[in-house]
Amino acid sequence: MPPESASFLPSSLDDVVRHYLLNELLRGVSRSFYLTLRVLPQPLREPISVAYLLARAADTLADTTAVPMLKRAAALQQFHAQLQLDKAADAPLERLREAYIDRLNHIAESELLTKLSALFELFARQTGPDRALIRNVVLTLIEGMLSDLENFPAPLNDAATVTALPDEQQLARYTYLVAGCVGEFWTKISIAHTDELQAWGEAEAQHSNLGIRFGQALQMTNILRDVPRDLRLGRCYLPQPWLDEVGLTAAALMNAKNSAAAQPLLIKGIEVALAHYALAEAYVTALPRRCLRLRLAALWPLFIGLKTLVELSQQKEWLEVAHVCKVERGWVYRMIFLSCGAVFSNTLLRWWCAHLRRGISLV
Prior knowledge:
CATH class of the largest domain: Mainly Alpha
CATH topology of the largest domain: Farnesyl Diphosphate Synthase
Structural class: mainly alpha
Order of helices and strands: HHHHHHHHEHHHHEHHHHH
Number of helices: 17
CATH superfamily of the largest domain: Farnesyl Diphosphate Synthase
Number of domains: 2
Strand order of the largest sheet: 1-2
């Protein structure tokens, strides 16, 4: 008798697998974002979690540096092809697992790749409209990952081959592909599952644009925080014209002694991020107060992002790879506790955002 495939698992085991994917495994790979996923309204939790797990699996294929770059690109293309099928084939997914399983140090990421068949089965069981939205956002994210591999093929720690993005247009495109599209997806799927957002549906393009800018704000913050580590992966997401303005090369940023000379780059990046955050704030305050869980799920990343900019702006050794800019866990817990009351008042939320912005040093 042939072994049972995911499609023919007994319902009790199927429930166990589904619960494992959406809880234990999700918590293992999503880090702090797990809190945001858990606070979402129930109808949104599963489709957004499935999208996250698929994107996380693709990201693992893209970022596992123990695998040669060309093989990573081929793996992403294969993953991309499987997403476009009504039902993914087990054999290609198994080949992906076998190519990576001994190269991963992160236990949860390794477990995610072993569960690809079950994850694709869960994806196939989403409603048609949800599948279309999930597929579109993950394919867009994969496009961004492939663009990364194409733009930054340099080997690790090869300062001579570190390259920067050519211009601000490419920066905007990159932040859309790897994060802005998530804000767009989040908005569309929220409208589809939330009666209170039907008015948003009449102006979906406007609200989707706010969602895009929200995602770009968070990604710009990640870029600024991760500059020292990205440089050692051969990647500089700061545009070349910015570097030219301060007379530095991308390779020069690998020297922490250039932190002071590079300070204008940090300030310029923070200003770009703040312009995005202004629209992220508009996004949160536009959510109806009745949508308590949706407001909290959007509010927490907004506050953590702004607080990260506060911490970054006060770092003197911005380019020191050993200095990891992180918001203190205690601050996050206090923010979550206090936000449960403040979330009902747009006046309080705007005051809180303004308070955080005042803590950002731009001199």
